[in-house]
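Quick one: structure tokens for this chain, please?
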Amino acid sequence: MPTVCVTDDVGRGGAVSGDVRDGLLVVRCQLGEREAFRELVGVWHAPLRRYLQGMAGSPHLADDLAQEVWIAVVRGLPRLRQPERFTPWLFTIARRTVTDHLRQAYRAPATPLEEAAAVVAEGDELSGVLTTMQIEAGLSELPPPEREVLILFHLEDLPLAACAEVLGVAPGTVKSRLHRARRMLRTILAERGYEA
């Protein structure tokens, strides 16, 4: 079996393109190679967790949701018929997992501890530079569809077509959501006194 060069730089380097690399890893996983699954998790765990944290708003919750997603991946991987489409498939599972969690959380009231954890610390601001915390705080105020499209497109670097597949909408809809989301985030950050 050929050797595949896997890097942490998802989709931006290595000996093969990201889709081809992922497709080869998926096929190896389907053949029962445990090391291939470790490599797949190594490549995709950080981007997956970033997406989940952006959608759920909590690092601890993102860890829990990531475990649920990887369990679903293990169960569904043998049935994945297009191994080169692993990325949209993974983020579709993640999206459903987050949606299910948010639906359940909506039915149960938040505890004061969860509300306190959502408060963003102030005073560490760098002059003229938006910190990750400031951007994340702005993202958390966006409606879920706009937040999700920004995370997938800008933070996870998914191409427009893959975003459309994950979200289950047309590429034109992704473009309009991106435009609206950027405008909304700019407004939110400007209201907080940040130049966006």
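The domain at 1-111 is CATH 1.10.1740.10 (Rna Polymerase Sigma Factor; Chain: A).
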